[in-house]
Amino acid sequence: MIIRKSLNPPIPYSSRLHHFSLPRPAHRALHARASPPPIPAPTPFVPDASTFLSLIGRGLSQHAAKISTWESLFSLTSTQLRDLGVEPARSRRYLLWWRERFRKGVFGVGGDLKHVHNGEAEVRVLEVPVALPPTQGAGKGRSGPGRDQGQNIPLPKSAPVAGGISPAVLPPARVKMMVVNEPPRDQDEEETVVARGPKVPVPRLEDLSPVEGMRVKGPRTIVGPYIYPVKGTGGSVAKIRVQEGMWEVRRGVKVDGGERRKVQVRRKRLLEARKSTRK
Fold it and tell me: If you ran DSSP here, which 8-state letter would residue 153 be given?
């Protein structure tokens, strides 16, 4: 056995005490001093706690009597929810997860609606003219004044005002179809709007916000989840109402015991099938 001398000299005992000190107990007190997160304001589509529990699904609406106020919904901790009887633990985690999403402004379908009455909102297709630059308005292979040169095309005085531009002279424009949320109209008001036609002022594109999760398919048909087309409108007007589980994120389904037990379960099933065929 060959013993080699160490090249580094040994550290004296006094120096060891200088370099190595006893650990001090750590105190986790910063989280107790932190202020609680702010409570978000209710939205027109989600006005109270019971509606929120109904929207996120997974049977949490049965605990609406235990979480009756909006402040308690966004202030109760996981331990307090357990004491109230919100079981199992995955339901509490799911509720806390959706609570943080709502606090950050992440909603499900219909969460961004502004005009809601008794849990029901109306959406409709709106045609908004979008002015194009003069270079994009030039037609290819066409002749006529203002086409090849990309100049402004004079429009009739009855044309609607779009984007604050004078209706007398507008650049070549295209129409953008948007699904917007507007206050519900009665039959007389709807007929008046249709009769006025182009005299109705068209809002600017910057002032409009399309409804998330909905789009226009075909000429004027609204497509989206949980919508009900209004009869006689050709699909251009639809209604959406609060339903149980609209925002629910469904749990996955285990197939053959899940990923960890899949091989074992399938092997056992194969052996049982072979035994049954031998008999």
Answer: E
Q: State the DSSP H helix or E strand holding residue 72, giving kind and residue range, or none if neither.
A: helix 70-73
Backbone CA torsion sign across 221, 230, 213, 180: positive
Q: Tens digit of pLDDT for each residue in 235-279?
A: 999 999 999 999 999 888 888 888 888 999 999 999 999 999 987
Residue 202 contacts residue 162 (beta carbons within 8 Å): yes
Q: What is the pLDDT of residues 210-224, one digit of tens each?
A: 888 899 998 889 999
Q: How far apart (Å, rounded) are the C-alpha atoms in residues 18 and 20?
A: 6
DSSP string, 89-152: HHHHHHHHHHHHHHHTT---TTTT---EETTEEEEEEEEEEEEPPGGGSPPTT--STTTSS-PP
Print burial letters for 197-214: b (CB count within 10 Å at least 16), e (below 16).
eeeeebeeeeeeebbebb
What span, in angstroms and rounded, lies between the C-alpha atoms of 99 and 21? 45
